[in-house]
Amino acid sequence: MTKKNGADDRQFIKLYRDVLESASWRSLNLYGYRFITFLMIEDMRHRGKQNGFLLAPYRQLEAFGIHKDSIAQTIAEVEAVGLIDCIRGGHRVPNRYALTWRLLADGTSPSERWRHCAEQAAKLIAARQAAKTRISNGATLP
What's the sign of the alpha-carbon dihedral 115, 120, 123, 124? Predict the structure, then answer.
């Protein structure tokens, strides 16, 4: 995938090691990873110049592999652990998203909220572990 002059035209996104090593990143489940991946791809589609204005329509998230009944919960969890910021839309105005380790479209520094969400991430990890324990002991989920 190189241009005529030998330059590489593939898209990429920076994902820093401290993000990957964070409790927030470790707290993600499969749908959380898919949601973050969807937003990173969307950011790359716009050459990294639309962070804070990224859209994630439910129809597209479902086609990307997130179950329709889990989309709202997935977004809430990823936002709670600080990996995204969600700017809520109104009636017929879509929500917009920002990846919190990336520079915003207007040049604003990243919020890096994930650095301050270790407690929320730990609670999410513990809740998932407790759910696995209940299931393995034959109990049903509430």
Answer: negative
- Looking at per-residue confidence, does 61 or 129 come out higher? 61
Q: Is 60 helix (H, G, I), strand (E, B) or coil?
A: helix
pLDDT in tens, 58-93: 999 999 999 999 999 999 999 999 999 999 988 889
pTM of the model: 0.86
Report in angstroms the alpha-carbon separations of 100 from 37, 51, 97, 114. 13, 9, 9, 7
Residue 82 within a domain: yes
- Radius of gyration over every alpha carbon of the chain, rounded to an integer in angstroms: 17
Q: What is the largest CA-CA distance in the chain?
A: 62
Q: What is the CATH number of the domain that holds 97?
A: 1.10.10
Would you say residue 80 lies in a domain? yes
